Amino acid sequence: MTAHIDGALATWTTRGPRPSSVSYPHAKATKDGKLETCKPIHRLEWKTSKTGESLVIFSGGLPTDKAGKTHSITVLNGKSTTVLEMEHSVVDFVTLCETPHTADYQEPYAIVVLLQNDLVVIDLLSPGYPCFENPYPMDIHESPVTCCSYFADCPSDLIPAFYSVGRQGNKKVAGFSEKLWPINGGEWAPASCSYSEIILTGHADGSVKFWDASAGTLQILYKLKCSKVFERGGVAGGGAAGEESPVAAQQLALCAESRRLAVALPHGHVLLFKFRKTETHGETHVIEVPMITDTLEEETSPEAEGGRSMSFSRGADSVEGENRRSGVWGGWSSLRVRGASGTGGARRAAGFQPALVALQPGPPHAVTALTLNSSYGLMAWGGDRGVVVVDMSRRCVVSALCTAALYHAPRHTERQRSPSLDQMEGPGPGPGAGGGAAAAGGGGRAVRRSRSQGTRKLHKCLSTASDVYAAPSAPQHSLLTTRQYCSFDKLDSSFSRSRSSSMSSLENISQEGIQCLAFADSYTKKSDPTTLLPTLWIGTTLGSVLTMMISLPEADLRHTQPVVVSTSGGPIFRLRGSILTMSFLDCNGALIPYSYESWKDDSKDVRERRERTPTKQSSSSSGSRMSPTPGPTECSSTVGDRQFVVIASEKQARVVALPSQNCVYRQQIVETDFIVKAEIVSLKDSVCLVNYLSTGHLAAYSLPSLRPLIDVDFLPLTELRIAKTFCFSNRGHGLYLASPSEIQKFTIDAEFCQQLNEMLGEVFLARDMPEPPKESFFRGLFGGGARPLDREELFGESSGKASRTVAKHIPGPASGLDQLGVRASTAASEVSRAHQMVVERGDKLSQLEDRTERMHSQAAEFSSSAHQLMLKYKDKKWYQL
C-alpha cells in the first residue's frame, strides 16, 4: 500500500504493474461529480489483526478546504473510518503490536504519536480510541510559564495528597482510557533522595501546576485553574486585544504546612485557596481592597491610641452596592466571582478551593511581593503603590497603606527625616524606634500579651556549637548544569530599570514601591530588648527596611476581635538597591524555626502550632513567621541581642543584631552590576546566602559572617525569562526556565552531585547472561571442534595454576635469612614451574597441530578411497555386482 500527495491510498500486488485499487478516504464527490482535493498523506502503516481484519493508519489526507490547519490521525478499521484530531502537528507515529514470532499477523493495540509539542498514545482496543493518560510531563509549555516556586525538603505528605486530588480530577476528564500506560520499559534507580521536592509553575492562562521534582524525576501531580474562580464570560471579556490574560498567575505563595495557596493576578487581585481532600459546595467570600492613595483615610483603633495604626474590618457584607455584594467588579478587568456570597455558592472540586477573593478596584496595581502566615492568620502583598494586609480568619482588610504612609505622613517631614547616603552603612537613626515605641505604648493590652508570649518562647532554644563570630563550616561546592547559551538576546526594558537607591528628600518616597515582605516575631525597638512582637518586615525598591507591628487578639477571640497594625515611623535600615530577601537567625547563627498552623480536615477544629525548619519559598518574599530561639548565653555582638536579621539587596548584604540594631557583618557583593536573585537557604548544617548576579555568576556567602564560599561563572543572563523564573531553595538546589518548554534544575551541593548518577533511571532493563548449554556426551566423543573449556585451560586466567586439591607447602617460622632463602627458592620454583608450564603448553599445541594434520590426511585418504570405489562401481549393473 502506498500513500500519495493528493490524499490517495493505492494497493498493489507484488506482480502487477498497476495498482489493484485506489481510494480517497476523505474525499467527497462534489456537485460536478468530481472528488474533493485533499492534503498529502505523510505517514502510513498497514497492520492485520488475528481475525484477519485490516487496520490502516495514516496522518494527513484531509480535504484542503477544511478551515484552519487541522492535524489528525485517521484509523481505517474495515468499513469504519475514525479521524482523531491532534492539538499539534504530527511529526511521526508508530503502531504497537503484540506479534507472535511464528505468526503471519500483527495484533495492534496502541498508536504512539509524536506531536510537535506533545506525546500521545491512543488505545486501539477501547471503543472510540481514547488516549492513555500520560504520566510524564510533556506539556510544561501548554501555556507560557509566568512564575515559578521551588520547595525542597517540604512535608512528605504533600506529594501523596496532591497526587490523590489530581487523579480524582483526571478520572472525570472524558476521553482518557481506563487502561494503564502501555509502555513499561526501563526502571527507576534504587537510590533516591530522602526528602520531597515540589515545583509550582504559574501560567498565562491562570493555571497553577504542581510537580513532583524529587531526585531526578519530574511528574505532574495536580493542576489548579484560577479561571474557574470567575464566571466564564467575565474572564473572556477582561482586557482589550493584545493585553495579557486577566487571570494570569503573577506571584505564588504557598504555606506547605497549612496547605494554603495565594495567587496574585495582573490587575492586583489576590486569590486565597485552601486545600480540601473532597469535593464541596460553598460560597466564596469577596472583599474589596481600599484604593491606596497618599490621602488615605484612617480608622484609629482605641486599642492603640497615640500610635499610627490602621484597622479595616470591612468584609464582603459591608461592601456597597448589590453588584459588589455578588462579586461583580467593573473597570479594566470586569470579573464576576463564581459562587460569591449571597449567590447560593458553587461546586468546588477536590484540591485547592477558593476561600477568599480580594479584588482591587481602579487602575491595575501589579503585585511584586506576596506572602502569607497561617499562624498569624494574615496575608500581605505589596506593589508600586503600597502594602496591603488581610485577615484570612475574619476575611477582611486589616491595613492598606501607601509607601509614604510607612514613613508617617509625607506632610510631617519635620517629624521624620529620611536617612541620607552616609547612613547607609549602618542601622537607621533612633526616631524609627521611637515611633514604634509610641505605637506600642498606647496598646497596653497587646504589648502585655506579646511580652508574655515572648517570655515563654525564650525557653525554647536552638543551640549549636558554632560561635556567632565563627563562620559555619563551608560546605563542599560544585555546580551542576547541562545547558549552555550562545544567543545574547536583549533583555526586556522593564527589567533594565534604574537601580539607584539614593534618596535625599521625602519627595522620592512617592516613587517607592514594595519589593519584599516577611512575617516574624522580632525585636523592633532598641528601648525594649525583652518585648517580642509579631511584625511584618517590609523591604522597598529604594533600599529601605520598615516594620509594621501587629497586635493579635487572644486565640479564643481571634474570629471576633480585629487585628491592629502600627507603623514603626521610618526606616530601620537602609541599603543600596532594592531589597530582595530578609531572614532571621538566632544568636548561634541558625535559621529560626517558624510557627505555623497545621493543616486539618474540616471535620476537625483542633489547631496545632508547630515549629520546623523553614521551607524556603522562591517568591520575592519570605512566607514564614519566625519565632526566636535564643541560646543559653547572650550574643557576643552586643549584650542583650537575641536575633540576627539578614538583609540582602541588589548591591549588598547586611547582618544586623536585634534589638540593638547594630550592623555586625556587611558585604558589598557588586558595584556596577546588580543581583538578580538572592535567598537565605540551609545547606547541610549551615546557612548560606546564595546570589545570582547579572554577570551570570553564582556567589554564596556563609552566615552570619558573610564570608565568600563560592563565586563561579554559571549562566549568562540572556533573557528576561531566566530572571523571572530563577529561584533557590533549601539544600543548595535551584531552578530556572531554560527555554519555554524546559525547566533546568541545578545544585551547589557537591555531595548531591556525587549521588546524581545513582539517582538516574535506566532506559533498558539489565539482565544477567544465561548459562551456556551443556555439551552432549556423543558430541564430545565424536568430535565437535574446539571447546571453550580447552581454550580456557590453555589461555585463560586459570592456566598454569595448580589444582585446588593439591596440597601447598606452608613454611614455618624461621630467621630472617632463612625466610629470605625460602622466598628466593619459592620464587625460583615458581619461575621454573611457569617455564615448565609454558613448555608443556607448547608441547600440547604441537601435539594438537600434529593430531589435526593426521586427521586431515586421514580424511583426504578416506575421500580418495571413497571416490575410487564410486568410480569402480559406477557403470556396473546390479547383476554384475
Question: How would you characterize this protein structure?
Answer:
It is a single chain. The chain is α+β, with helices and mostly antiparallel strands. Among the domains are: 2-132, no CATH class; 144-175 and 195-233 and 244-292 and 335-365, no CATH class; 399-408 and 508-599 and 642-668, no CATH class; 675-766, no CATH class. It is built from ten helices and 45 strands. Strands 20, 27, 28, 29, 30, 31 and 35 form a seven-stranded mixed sheet that branches. A five-stranded mixed sheet has the order 15-16-17-22-19. Strand 6 and strand 7 form a beta hairpin. The longest helix has 57 residues, at 816-872. It is flat.
Shape: flat
Distance between the termini: 64 Å
* Largest sheet report: 7 strands, mixed
Instruction: Bin the helical content.
Output: 10-25%
**Strand residues, percent:** 25-35%
Low-pLDDT residue intervals, each spanning 5 or more residues? 236-242, 296-333, 409-478, 480-510, 603-609, 617-637
Helical stretch count? Answer: 10
The gyration radius over C-alpha positions equals 38 Å
Q: What's the pLDDT, averaged over the residues?
A: 75
What class do helices, strands and sheet pairing give? Answer: alpha+beta
The tally of beta strands, per DSSP, is: 45
Region (Disordered): 1-26, 297-325, 411-456, 603-638
Pfam families: LLGL, Synaptobrevin
Biased composition (Low complexity): 615-628
Main location: membrane
